[in-house]
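Quick one: structure tokens for this chain, please?
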Amino acid sequence: MSALTIPQRPARKFLGEEFSVTTWEKLQPFYENLKNRSIHSVGDLRQWFLDKSELESYLSENFAWRYIRMTCDTASEQYQQEFNDFVENFQPFLSAYGNELDKKAVESPYLNELKDTGFEVALRSMKKAIEIFREENIPLQTQIQTEQAKYGAMIGAMTVNVDGEEITLPKASDFLQSTDRDLREQVWLKIQTRRLEDKVALDELLNSLRDLRNQTAINAGFANFCDYMFAALGRFDYTPQDCFNFHESVAEAVVPMLNDMANERKQALQLDTLRPWDLKVDPENRPPLKPFSTGEELLEKTITCFTQLDPQLGNYLSVMKAMGRLDLESRKGKSPGGYNYPLEEIGVPFIFMNATSNLRDLVTLLHEGGHAVHNFVTRDLLLNSFKNPPAEVAELASMSMELLTMDYWNVFFENEEDLRRAKIQHLESIIETLPWVATIDKFQHWLYENPTHSIEERQSKWLKIYEQFSDSVTDWSGFEDFKKYIWQKQLHIYEVPFYYIEYGMAQLGAVGVWRNYKQNPQKGLEGYLNALKLGYTAPISEIYAAANIPFDFSKDYITELMNFVREELEGLKK
């Protein structure tokens, strides 16, 4: 792709160029065609897969735009209705037909003659989907999606008043980096108090989701939603026991590093007691880093940063900018968080985030930019399913990009000391990430392995798990109520259950990719891109191997990688 050549959507050969979906009745004939079509050769079967992929890509992109518009403006009743329309009036039919088409594919006598790389992996997922499909779960899944959408609207509406200005919680969080300790405490209290106002509604929402999800699992013949999700997420390469081993490994190998960092912070700040509002300020009480001022500046500098790593990578972001595929700045009425949403017909994604002006925002765009690169390098793969790797691979793309670009962060920090601070903060955040991932994942296992738990039991279990994976230095005295509800800020628990351990696995993989890059930049970047280009045409372990890293989350490997991160940190701190 040459500079700023805008990609075109592939011709719709099956749907036709003029097709536009408005009702299920208009769409249904295409599904009937695929369901009833006679297949007399491997060529017919291959064309059937191509037509099915074209239909899936169109619908995926149609749904994507509904979701994007809704999250960009949660106050819009029209966007909410358009999203709900798809969930309520299309997805129930899509689930039923999807199951019929999966069965038609796996029962074809010509299946073994398909030689294209990737079909074996795709069929493995199809067989699992057939195994867990239940007609009675279709209306439950509709209810679940409708309930999940409530979370973003609730969080997006949260604001606090600071210095006479009503601001979003992401913007308010910037004050937690202030060198004025009294101000930090005041703003921290306002944020936590605002969150707590909705604690009952958020508890009730999770209860509703828990019950619906549990019933889905029971209907499909599983003991609990945890086991169901391992099947639904296609976790072929590891088991729940591997997750439990990961939790224990992190508790033993990483949490002691958290305590060391907390003690260093307490001493550097010369505090008798380290409090929750002291965790984001610079340890030497310097003003917060400000790598950019506006969303436009953030994007331009990120394009430059990507270009210095590899010109083609910068070109991908430039194309997204030219096509208006980014909404970066925080504002009232936006959903929380950030995402890169694939637009599967055209192959150019959309990046959404809530930037204010801090280092975390910079890292978020680098992270989502890594996902975007993944979309670009897989856009020409044969089938839609080949372009959709599991999260363990998708997050490897994004988390590696955070580290691969670090040598070029001088674009954001002209001052050498600021650059050094930024790198230290980011590497320390990696040490913080693994325990937080273990916390959320272990909590989710408990939530769904104990589906009749009370709110009081949930609070008690949360505190026990939280304390296992957090430092023992920070003093929460007087704020125990806030501590009970920290989990409510984690949107994954509400919107994408069990999607979290993948961040831990991918974080380990990303450190491995970065270590390879430090040793040999050309070979390290090449391995990273080779892994991404596979999409989902190979098992996870083979994709990681393409990047010259193991798919491993044992205590020994975690310790080895954390020692590498510690050495890098020590070098920066000298």
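The first strand starts at residue 159 and ends at 162.
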